[in-house]
Amino acid sequence: MKIKKIIIGILILGIVGVFVAYKMYNKPHVKVDEVATDIASTANKILEDFTADETIANSKYLEKIIEVKGEISEIKIVKEKGIITLKTNDDFGSVLCHLSAEATKEISTLQTGQTITLKGICTGYLMDVILVKSEIIN
C-alpha cells in the first residue's frame, strides 16, 4: 500500500515536470522592440552596478528589457549578427549589445564615437555586460 502511494506520487511529479518543461520549451520569443522597457540607464551606470555588487545588479537587470545609452566604441559582425560595444569609464569593461537580425541590417548606418540608444535583454556580466536581441532605438 505504501509503495503504491510512492509510485503514484512519483508519477504525478513526473507529469507535472513534463508539463512545465513543455511550456518552457514552447515559450514564445520576446520581440524586444514591441515590449515595454523595464529599466533605462547608461552604459556607465549598468557596468558600475555590476562591478560594485554583481548579486544586487543581477537581481535588478538579469532577464529584464534594458534601454541603454552610450557611445559606440566598436562595431562588428560575427556569424552574420551585429555586435555593438558601448564605451564606459572602465578600461576593462563595456556593454556588449548583440543585435537582432533586423537591427543588424541597420549597422552600416552607424559609426564609432556616435552616441546611441539600444534596447535588449540583459543576460549577465562576464567582464562586460551582455545584452541580447538588441534593437536600435536611435
Description:
- With 138 residues, the protein is α/β, with parallel strands linked by helices.
- The chain has one domain: Beta Barrel (OB fold (Dihydrolipoamide Acetyltransferase, E2P)).
- The protein contains 4 helices and 6 strands.
- It has helices spanning 2-25, 43-52, 54-61, 101-104; strands at 39-42, 65-78, 81-86, 95-99, 115-126, 128-136.
- It has a 5-stranded mixed β-barrel with strand order 2-3-4-6-5.
- The mean pLDDT is 90.
Provide the descriptors you would attach to this structure in a database record.
about 140 residues, about 35% helix, OB fold (Dihydrolipoamide Acetyltransferase, E2P), alpha/beta, single chain, five-stranded mixed beta barrel
Termini distance? 67 Å
Number of structural domains: 1
**Number of DSSP E strands:** 6
Helical residues, percent: 25-40%
How confident is the prediction overall: mean pLDDT?
90
Radius of gyration: 20 Å
* Tally of DSSP helical segments: 4
Low-confidence stretches: none
β-strand percent reads 35-45%
* Biggest β-sheet: strands ordered side by side in the sheet: 2-3-4-6-5
Q: Please name the CATH topology.
A: OB fold (Dihydrolipoamide Acetyltransferase, E2P)
Shape: elongated
CATH superfamily membership: Nucleic acid-binding proteins
Order of helices and strands: HEHHEEEHEE
CATH architecture: Beta Barrel
CATH class equals Mainly Beta
